[in-house]
Amino acid sequence: MDGDEPTSEAPFAEAAENHRPLPNGYRQGVITAITVMLGFSLYFLRFWGLEASGEWTLPTFLATVPIFLSAVCLSVALWRSLQVEDDNVPVYRVTLKWFLSGVLLALAGVVAAAITYS
């Protein structure tokens, strides 16, 4: 057997090396954080769209777009976090990127809404 030929154990060793489970409690914490932010985004979207006084203008509509995109990103993050594969660290990191995107979009939308409302 040549030293250049891959062994049949190499793919399994690589897969075992890439699979690193999360410590206990990490998934539960991020699921809670995602649902809190998703609830905030949806509630703010409802307030901004239905309850806020004033008429719709281009700036008020543009302030709504990041909030809506935030709800979409947070929904994707919640869906990903509820998958079994999210217990793997590399998959979990991608889920956290979706979550961070949703949080930053919500922040941008709230700041834009505050500027247009004043």
Mean pLDDT, as a whole number?
Answer: 84
Terminus-to-terminus distance: 76 Å
The number of E-state strands comes to 0
- As residue ranges, the low-confidence spans are 10-16
Q: Report the sheet with the most strands, covering strand number, pairing sense and barrel closure.
A: none
Keywords: Membrane, Transmembrane, Transmembrane helix
Transmembrane segments: 26-45, 57-78, 98-117
Region (Disordered): 1-22
Description:
By secondary structure, the protein is mainly alpha-helical. It has one domain. 75% of the residues lie in helices and 0% in strands. The chain has 4 helices and no strands. Helix 2 runs antiparallel to helix 3, helix 2 runs parallel beside helix 4 and helix 3 runs antiparallel to helix 4. The longest helix is centred in the C-terminal third of the chain and has 29 residues. It is elongated, with a radius of gyration of 21 Å. The N and C termini lie far apart (76 Å). About 6% of the residues have low confidence.
